[in-house]
Amino acid sequence: MAIYDIAADLFDLTRWYAEQNYNANPTTFRGAKVYDRIVSDVQSIPEKVDFNLIPGLAYTVKNEIVNDTNTEQSMSTKLMHTLIESNSVTTTKGYKIGSSIKNTFSVNIEGSFFVGGGSTEHSIEVSVSGEYNHSSSETKTNTSQKTWEYNSPILVPAKTKVTATLDIYAGPVVVPVTLKSTVTGTGIVNNFPNVLTSLSYIDRNNKLWTDSLPTALLYDYRNQWPGSQSIYVGKNGGGVQVEGKAEIQLELGLYSIATFDSQPLSGNTTGKEAVYSKAILRDGSIIDI
User: Where does residue 132 rank: exposed (0-12), middle (13-18), buried (19+ CB within 10 A)?
Assistant: First the structure.
């Protein structure tokens, strides 16, 4: 992960250009100045919003239901767990100029998966919102809660114990994001507009020079300047268009499976054992599996 300093890169370009073209003495650079700037067209664009998800077991809840009477009973299952879900945003390749460059986002993520190894594909859509900081690689994480439950009563035969299990399945989603901005200096030096930086130096003939540069030169000299970075992808007037990378990491509950395993107790004359399951989807709907 890297965060590139646009002003520092422009100073580096100035030093390289002055040494290459004006015989600058590299020990004499001084008077570095950064002018005000305008940051515009700040965007965050997901590169992909639909995913094939691989569910994994996240949590298991168990409950025993005992009917020791001589008649069939309708009994509560009481299976419930609140799962913590996370939403993390990390800038993996960013840029800065003075204060942080930020923008808010809201994106709908779609995912498809198979429930319990079945052959029918199911899908979810979740809305994710937050803030990108184009200028920091620090991960920002938000959490939320999702409660999974199965509360429908079940019929328990006489002299029978039912072990009820709720298995909750979750899956990770990593959303790649492209970050974009345009940075334009507002300085005017000798009627030359869009200046972001000025740097003075003395050449080998002991003459003092001051070079004042617009950010667009970071793109213009991308093929000649050895310090050029891949974030400089275009220009707009005197401004440079920069492009970085980020990612959203989600951990989402996808579905749960309620399983009921019936075992006869002492005195049960039928001796029947039975196992059946139901799946609870994220929207609360219940399906037989």
Answer: buried
Q: Is residue 238 part of a domain?
A: no
Residue 169: CA atoms inside 13 Å, Cβ hemisphere, count?
18
pLDDT tens for residues 13-25? Answer: 999 999 999 999 9
What's phi and psi for 230, nearest 5 deg? -70, -10
The C-alpha angle 58, 59, 61, rounded to 5 degrees, equals 160
Number of domains in the chain: 2
139: three-class secondary structure by DSSP: coil
Q: Could you tell me if 227 and 122 lie in one domain? A: no
Q: Determine contact, residues 234/242, Cβ cutoff 8 Å.
A: no
* pTM of this structure: 0.85
Residue 195 lies in a domain: yes
CATH at 141: 2.170.15.10
The SS3 of residue 77 is coil
The domain in which residue 223 lies consists of 2-36+186-231
Spatial separation of the C-alpha atoms in residues 128 and 115, rounded to whole Å:
23
Residue 7 included in any domain: yes
The yes-or-no verdict on residue 288 having pLDDT over 90 is no
**Euclidean distance between CA atoms 182 and 164, whole angstroms:** 58
Phi/psi at 51 (nearest 5 deg)?
-140, 150
> Of all helices (H) and strands (E), which one includes residue 10?
helix 6-21
171 and 269 co-located in one domain: yes
